[in-house]
Amino acid sequence: MSDCYDSTFLIPTLNKQGWMIDKVVDEYTLEFIDYASKNINYSLEIAAAYGNISLEVLKKGGKIIVNDIEPKHLDVLYSKTPDELKANLKIIPGSCLDDLDIDLESISSVYCSRLFHFFSSEEILKTLKKMNSYLEKKGKLFIVSDSIFHGYNKHHFQNYVRKKSLKEKDPGILRPHEYIFHADPEMQEQMRSNMPNVFNLLDIDLMSSLLVEAGFLTEKAGYFTRRGHYPEESLWNGQEGLGIVAVKNY
Ligand SMILES: C[S@@+](CC[C@H](N)C(=O)[O-])C[C@H]1O[C@@H](n2cnc3c(N)ncnc32)[C@H](O)[C@@H]1O
Mind telling me which InterPro entries this protein's record contains (predicted)? Predict the structure, then answer.
């Protein structure tokens, strides 16, 4: 099937949870790959889709536990993993909110890319607390997400500012009818049908306060461009992506 994102690096998920980003890597993801591949302990990637980043970690000598809610995504990762690296790969399908059975303080780092913009702040906090409990002392957390400067939010930005000033919990929430989609109706339908019902665009303020509440200290946080990664309608001002590196504080 031809896909509306053929010209980019986005591969559709099998469960209408957006796309996996392939071949292009932001600086936060690069830091995770480096950190995880040099560490002798296992790292964890949640919401990995087909696991291209975890595969990179394995190829560079790291050990990794990989999670996604759609088991078929993880089957693809397993089949792509060279036999000699399979001993360093553990796969746990299921929801990162409820289904992970991981020993406390046993993981050196956690990577979560492009999941939290589908979660409410309550779900993000629950996930962060769980990740904190799995991490060893001073373990690291790497987060990548879509930001409030995603192109879809261009026409809703004043609404976001208003909701933020009213201290609403999730000021960046957009519902499907609010997304700014493709001009071509067929493409528009294709995009709509591959997205979940909530898009919760995130800002550094919100993420920082959730991280503090979950026991993390933020080491680095910033916005970055998705130009060259996302199609034109998803771009805005060069700050479409949000990246965070945090360390377990307690
Ligand atoms: C937009 S894709 C991101 C894939 C990849 N991490 C990336 O950055 O390209 C979102 C992924 O989150 C997974 N997902 C959604 N809800 C989840 C949950 N509760 N627990 C684990 N994975 C989940 C979906 O199956 C999908 O593969």
Answer: Methyltransf_25, SAM-dependent_MTases_sf
Cβ(33)–Cβ(56) under 8 Å? yes
Domain count of the fold of the chain:
1
Whether 114 is in the pocket of ligand 1, judged by its Cβ within 6 Å, is yes
Phi, psi of 87 (to 5 degrees): -65, -25
Model confidence at 217, in pLDDT bands (50, 70, 90)? very high
Instruction: Return the CATH number at 60.
Output: 3.40.50.150
Please report the atom of ligand 1 found closest to the CA of residue 47: 22
Query: Tens digits of per-residue pLDDT, 4-42?
Result: 455 568 999 999 999 999 988 999 999 999 999 999 999
Percent of the chain with pLDDT over 70: 95
Q: Is 141 helix (H, G, I), strand (E, B) or coil?
A: strand
Q: Whose CA is nearest to atom 14 of ligand 1?
A: 47
CA-to-CA dists, residue 183 to 153, 189, 233, angstroms: 16, 10, 9
**132 in contact with ligand 1, CB cutoff 6 A:** no
1 found inside a domain: no
CA dihedral 180, 185, 191, 193 (to 10 degrees): 120
Report yes or no on 60 lying in a domain.
yes
The three-state secondary structure class of 199 is: strand
| Spatial contact of 135 and 141, defined as CB atoms under 8 Å apart | yes
The atom number, within ligand 1, closest to the CA of 22 reads 9
CA nearest 29: which of 226, 199, 206, 173? 226
| Cα distance between residue 192 and residue 177, in whole Å | 9
